[in-house]
Specification:
This protein is mostly helical. Helices cover 71% and strands 3% of the residues. It has helices at residues 7-21, 28-54, 86-109, 116-135, 139-157, 164-195, 200-207, 212-229, 238-241, 247-256, 261-268, 270-273, 277-298, 304-324, 328-355, 373-387, 393-407, 411-436, 444-449, 455-470, 485-490, 509-534, 539-544, 548-554, 559-606, 613-636; strands spanning 63-73, 76-84.
Length: 637
């Protein structure tokens, strides 16, 4: 099956071509089914590769396939080649598996949309580039996939482009990501000049003998790319606005694919990061700070999708915190469980929005529990999972990160992570209570419209809910009776957890139980507080809403306004000045002046064009006399 791995990205590309050129005029069912079938086939081949690799000895679980030479210039060579190993297989299973469910769901969600065929073309294109990103065996091919998902996300976020706000959201995502991509591109150049190669295996072999300062520079530049793609501070601002796209897009981009690319890239480069304590520290601090920063903003958001958006930024912060403290397997473990429960929550929010006729403000919802029982039950499972309640996937992966942070003696970062966990439990249950409990607070006409979503939408919810419950047991730690199968699976890619000085793990089962208990208690306190305030209708909610702190959070720390004042507006004013003073004042005058000069000269010369042959003969004679006189003068000197 490994020899057929090239089919995995080929199927989505085939879906793009078929829906783009052959399926014009076909029914929605045919178009959607074709697009979903292509992803289903990719998942089937990926599952076959996974089973084959699982049967190999751990040391042999790496397969490279070169399709053709892409670039060959002097000593530089970059092939189009795929790397199938435990890490890429985890990502491929997540991308194809969750994307397949999202494609199925989208057939129901996008029913009746004028751009139905275009939507599935762009969705298939996105999956193709994402698979290219995770399957490439070198940094340059990864960059191609990286840029491809950037383009596809721009198209999908701004899918309803006739709405100016939605089109602007797509442009914002595209531009902010380019800032991070600049760092990634510089890192690729530096990798080539340092190692003379861009293939992961070759770079890993040569990394230990390279200049440590260069390694740190490469790691920081790569992380700059990851900060943009994975929406970390300060480049997180595009992700909440990206909610302007259709909800299945939010689930695809913000749960299972694009935003996790930065985490994947850092883990894939773990052999470089493990050589740079400075870069690891930067990654850990940015991750922890982003986790708490975004979680606090999520506390007061009223748009159901915006709450989930800030939650995604926060959860990605946890993954980078794990990378920074050397727990790379924990980062990928949380990436996987997050794809399950966040995909579920986004699709669940889409089901709610679909059920209430497009409303996204939670203050105009309520009482949906009985009217949308399947959506409610699955959403509750997702909420419990992300809140870190024992027994669900999110508990195992988040606890693993907090434990590795604590046992690595990063106590300040652990407290920050714990604070973010409290906020997560609070804002997710606030969302749950406002949406599904109490009485309906929207217009009466909208209340009559509320209904459960069709099966094509609820079946994916049920499958994702099952994964949100069971997905964490593949990484059950020894302290809870497991053998950390997930960690063993990745052990050949992530060679060691924390080899750098100061990152040694001091594991103790009793201490681990204590840390685990603290994180559970913190989550329960957050849930209880949300219950007291929003189910009991506490006066505290009203009073807190009038405080300065609430104002700060409601305005999201004014970061967008600060960017607008310090960056956007100066650029706009500078561009305006250049347009009027340099472009119009200098360039246009120079170009127009040149034209005017030669037009004037032409006008004078034109007067000699009389059409009288005698005049032409006279001018020729005078010219010859002038040349002859000049010749004589020069000859006599």
């Amino acid at each position: 099956m490994l020899e057929l791995a090239y089919l995995i990205p080929l199927f989505p590309l085939l879906g793009v071509l078929l829906n783009g050129f052959v399926m014009r005029g076909q029914s929605e069912k045919a178009i959607g089914s074709l697009a979903a079938a292509m992803i289903g086939l990719s998942f089937a081949v990926t599952a076959g590769c996974f089973i084959e690799v699982l049967g190999m000895l751990p040391a042999g679980r790496s397969f490279e396939m070169t399709l053709f030479t892409w670039i060959a210039a002097g000593k530089f060579a970059a092939p189009v080649a795929f790397l199938i190993d435990p890490l890429s297989l985890v990502m491929m299973l997540i991308v194809t598996g969750v994307s397949f469910l999202i494609h199925i769901y989208s057939i129901g969600y996008m029913h009746g949309d004028a751009g139905f065929r275009r939507f599935f073309i762009e969705l298939n294109l996105f999956v193709f580039f994402m698979l290219l990103l995770v399957m490439g065996n070198n940094y340059l091919l990864m960059f191609v996939g990286w840029e491809g998902v950037g383009l596809s996300s721009y198209l999908l976020i701004g899918f309803w482009y006739s709405d100016e706000a939605k089109a602007s959201a797509g442009k914002k995502a595209f531009i902010v990501n380019r800032i991070g991509d600049f760092g990634f591109l510089l890192a690729v150049f530096l990798i080539w000049t340092t190692f003379g190669n861009v293939q992961f295996s070759e770079v890993a072999r040569a990394a230990t003998t390279a200049d440590p300062a260069r390694i740190t520079a490469i790691c920081l530049l790569l992380f700059m790319g990851a900060v943009g793609k994975s929406a970390q501070f300060p480049l997180y601002v595009w992700l909440p606005d990206a909610m302007a796209g259709p909800t299945p897009v939010s689930a695809l981009i913000h749960a299972a694919t694009m935003v996790t690319a930065g985490v994947y890239m850092v883990v894939r480069s773990n052999f470089l990061y493990q050589l740079s304590p400075t870069a690891m520290t930067v990654v850990a601090i940015v991750g922890a700070a982003t986790a708490l920063f975004a979680a606090t903003i999520g506390l007061v958001q009223n748009d159901i999708k915006k709450v989930l958006a800030y939650s995604t930024v926060s959860q990605l912060g946890y993954m980078f915190l794990a990378c920074g403290v050397g727990a790379f397997t924990a980062a990928i473990f949380h990436l996987m469980t997050h794809a399950f429960f966040k995909g579920l929550l986004f699709l669940g929010s889409g089901s709610v929005i679909h059920g209430v006729g497009g409303e996204q403000d939670m203050r105009k919802m309520g009482g949906l529990k009985e009217k949308m029982p399947v959506t409610f039950a699955t959403f509750l499972i997702g909420t419990l999972a992300i809140a870190g309640i024992p027994g669900l996937a999110g508990f195992f992966s988040k606890d693993e990160i907090l434990w590795k942070t604590f046992s690595g003696q990063h106590y300040v970062l652990w407290i920050i992570g714990l604070s973010a966990a409290f906020c997560t439990a609070f804002y997710m249950f606030r969302l749950l209570y406002l949406t599904f409990y109490g009485s309906f607070r929207g217009p009466k006409a909208a209340e009559h419209h509320v209904h459960e979503s069709p099966k094509v939408m609820t079946v994916p919810l049920i499958i994702l809910a099952a994964l949100a419950i069971l997905g964490g047991y593949v990484g059950l730690p020894a302290s809870l009776g497991g053998n950390d199968a997930f960690g063993h699976w990745l052990s050949t890619v992530v060679r060691t957890e924390a080899p750098v000085e100061g990152l040694e793990l001091h594991e103790d089962v009793s201490v681990e139980y204590g840390v685990m208990a603290v994180s559970v208690i913190v989550a329960l306190v957050g849930i209880f507080l949300a219950y007291s305030w929003y189910m009991k209708k506490s006066e505290a909610v009203k009073k807190l809403g009038e405080t300065k702190a609430h104002d700060v959070l409601e305005h999201k720390y004014w970061v967008d306004q600060i960017y607008d004042t310090l960056i956007s507006q100066p650029i706009v004013r500078g561009s305006d000045w250049l347009a009027h003073n340099f472009d119009l004042g200098v360039i246009d005058r120079l170009v127009n002046g040149t034209g005017t000069f030669f037009q004037g000269v032409g006008g004078v010369v034109r007067r000699g064009q009389t059409g009288v042959v005698q005049n032409y003969a006279l001018f020729m004679g005078l010219g010859l006399l002038a040349l002859l006189a000049t010749f004589i003068v020069v000859a006599l000197r």
